[in-house]
């Protein structure tokens, strides 16, 4: 799956806009490795070889002196010979250096070998990522009628709270998303200086300490955005149910993990790679700011990698560096004169690290320019050409000087700088930057952005991505790609009397202003569109505004003016601070990372750590021991053994009984519950809900899934008691009420107390669970008032109704409609009519009062156990009727109560959550609200006020019992009304016929036993009693 999701497309025709279709797909990673010592030695030997070849050619060059100029033909011949000699020497040099690079380049060398002249390397997103980027968004939802009362909520998890370029990008995006209607809650892995800024933007910031990472209820958010790899620990809680369905966008801007992945592969640490792959797979979209990063992380791709380009990091780095450094000072330090004109040559970002084919093409492209200006020395200064790529090794510089000498350039005209140096220093010294790449980039090159931010005029090929952001002769100068004459022509207007012309200064100024807010609009709209395609917007939430509403397209520089001024090199910015990557690495391997921030592919392994050979030897030893163990057991089975004495038998029996007792030993909570009148079952579905569950004698866990049950407690396995819950479809659409059905199924085997209660795990996550004081108040009141039909609840149905006016204006059925796409009344009425078989002309929607009192939600209530069984009997029949309305075998995913995919998954949950209110109100139960904080009691909807309003005849126990028996008789006779009949699967099936059949079965067994006893007695009288012989 992973290999099919990400591909590198190599376009042999030069990229977009060319004819032909000869694309090759390469599925290897692109590894950008620094030059090692071994490679440097090979480079030196290769360079010495070319020096020898050059001297031999010079000795033979005397033949040319015999020829005398005779017209223009000789001049043409010399020019052609010079160009050919330059190209051939470059090819020979490239072949030598590339071979040495591929000797250690791994998979990346294979990619480069398949990239030739005129080819382009492209990142091709997987199918899932393409759907997220190109999806239709909310167009279909905006065309339907919608009742929304609250804005969509998003959670933002920050890896750090520094005031840096990453914070600038996030603040800008979040402020614009707020304009579309989103509301944010900010979480942070650690505290930082930007906390006040985030609190001003989004309110209180919650810092997630290590022991509280799992104590956030992510289900209250429509989506989660995590920034940085450092947020991984917080993301770990999202990898368990019930949080796996919460949409997650993970922004990864560091490349430190990409630099470590080749090391893991070399060490054979497949488990460590799988760990990171599973973490990346949890995200609905992993967002990178550059197209090179998804290629570097390709081994972790499962088809969800998305690229949203941004430029703010490079602009921030350039402005920070300019605050503390000057061009004149840097030139003086590096030996350049004040009048020297420095031309910076930069190649493709895919080949920054070595002298590649791309750099060979650049040298050929710059041939006429070097020849014309490299030998020229104007008054007071000269032209200097600086090549920026690779590392600052002797071999790299020798390669450049070799080409310069062949072109007849003077010493010092051409110089090489590596990316392992201070790149900002090199860029700031330059007067002109020539982007001489043959690779067509997918996004604007980051170092070009940084150079423009320094105020350097740019000369670049006419690539579409460059023309997208820049205007020719306004922000830079374009030339036709792979055309040396066009480059020479584009370069001329920038020079005047050996200095930069006014035209060049104007272009530099315009380019600097352009980069200030470059890609801001694209970045903001891309995130907004990504959210529309990922986030599930529930029925009660507003839809965000249209992306076309965003008009301001600029970064929020005004909030960060005081922070710009700290110089940071390009390498430091890209690598980031060490943290979670090394923590995970040490957990899996115990590797100690080198402190060298440049060569981060180097690792030091302690001698005490086992090597791969040690593990192989250990595996062989374990295999031999296992073989000997099995062989000895087989031999013991075949050998005769003496009969054990009675003492040994008794000892083994006592040991077996002790082990059996330890397995079934009740925990402390179960022992404390003995004799108590109340037990509250906390319903949960998934390990992610464990931190929200309570401990003690009052509570007991109720797991809807067998595999996610807490092993160290006596939690009830709902799926074991009710096999229906093993079906994930029904477990999802019934939610908590499915757990109630499991408890009611043969309730005497699990609950023998007079009171029973339920509480969803979400109550603790939303801070509405019972406090210790409220628990004591509840226990005291049920012990004092043991008579009467009463329901205590502590989580009230409260929807933010500010959009519709006063909260009191929201009636019960209005709130139910809001939570169920406006179809609650209609669906409830149809289900109620189907349940009782009512004709169309009779009203079937039970009236609910508008008295301003509270209603129960989240299944957080306590009632007498007999009342609970009556409620379950009513709920089973209503659930069956509700399922009958959606009983479409051809479309099991349709749901009239849902507006999003997540709501369709839990189709009946929101209606069944409110069902207890309808049953309690119309069955005449007293409803009391208990404050979860102080335990104060307040009666809701008093009984005297219900007279003339309640439908007591439909909720009469006798009627419900007769309906239940009718359904049981039909199920017992296999007279199912449809193929998928839900009711028999939700609990016990009992009716009068079942009782009679069980009684008849017991009577038959009794008579059979009596008959066998008489036959045995008659046979003994007839034949007498014969004692068996001792040896018989």
Question: What does this molecule look like?
Answer:
Residues 395-500 form the Glycosyl transferase family domain. The chain is 45% helix and 11% strand. With 1032 residues, it is an alpha/beta fold. Helix 37 packs across helix 40. The protein is elongated, with a radius of gyration of 39 Å.
Structural topology:
Elements: H1 2-5, E1 7-11, E2 23-26, H2 37-59, H3 62-65, H4 72-105, H5 107-113, E3 120-124, H6 127-134, H7 139-142, E4 153-158, H8 165-179, E5 183-188, H9 195-202, E6 205-207, E7 223-227, H10 232-236, E8 248-251, H11 256-267, H12 270-282, E9 285-288, H13 292-296, E10 305-307, H14 312-324, H15 327-333, E11 341-346, H16 357-365, H17 367-373, E12 383-388, H18 394-406, E13 414-417, H19 423-429, E14 432-435, H20 446-453, E15 458-461, H21 464-469, E16 477-479, H22 484-491, E17 495-496, E18 499-500, H23 502-516, H24 520-534, H25 570-575, H26 580-588, E19 592-593, E20 603-604, H27 612-638, H28 646-663, H29 668-673, E21 678-684, E22 699-703, E23 716-717, H30 718-721, H31 728-734, H32 736-744, E24 755-760, H33 762-765, H34 772-784, E25 790-793, H35 812-819, H36 824-836, E26 861-864, H37 865-885, H38 901-905, H39 909-922, E27 926-930, E28 937-940, H40 957-972, H41 992-1023
Parallel strand pairs: 4-5, 4-7, 5-6, 7-8, 8-9, 9-10, 11-12, 11-14, 12-13, 14-15, 15-16, 21-22, 21-24, 22-23, 25-27
Antiparallel strand pairs: 1-2, 1-3, 17-18, 19-20, 24-26, 25-26, 27-28
Pfam family, one: Glycos_transf_1
Keywords: Coiled coil, Glycosyltransferase, Membrane, Transferase, Transmembrane, Transmembrane helix
Transmembrane segments: 73-93
